[in-house]
Amino acid sequence: MWTTFWDMHSGGGQKEDVAMIFIEAPEDEAKVIFYNRFGHNPERVTCTCCGSDYSISENESLEQATGFHRNCKYSYMKDGKEISQEEGWTSGKGKNKNVWSGYMEKQNEQQMNIRKSCKTSDDDKWGLYMTLEEYLKLGEALVIYAKDIKPEDRVGDIPEQGYVWME
What we know:
It is a single chain. The protein has helices at about 25-40, 60-65, 85-95, 110-115, 130-135, and strands at about 1-5, 20-25, 55-60, 70-80, 80-85, 100-105, 140-145. The chain is of the alpha+beta class. It has 2 domains: about 1-70 and about 130-165, no CATH class; about 70-125, no CATH class. The chain has a 4-stranded mixed beta sheet. The protein has a 3-stranded antiparallel beta sheet with strand order 5-4-6. It is globular and about 45 Å long.
């Protein structure tokens, strides 16, 4: 499993040198690793008007975790064939659970249409599909692989920090 920590720039700034941190661990464990590596709770709220410091999500692979940021197409598949979003939702909710959804290694056409309407220059890469290798070379993300995580980084308590939402 991979856990993504996407810095929401709450409080007006980025918390680390990169906006995206990917940790090869399930979410609960990754939060502990994050705290042990960076010294702050990833669920901290720095500014009450801005919300949480990070958007946190879990994915089965690094390719899926980075798919949105690499401008990959999000698709629904059934029996090896691409189906519509509506059909994917309907099929997935009923008895037929053999619907897969996720990022595919091809261009997100919506991003391409936005790119065309914005009249970006040919040398501007905004909105274009990137392979995982190309994305990681940009230096906008930090990837922490399981092999690079020390056993002591996987244990500990995360203190409450920042503002705390009260109901």
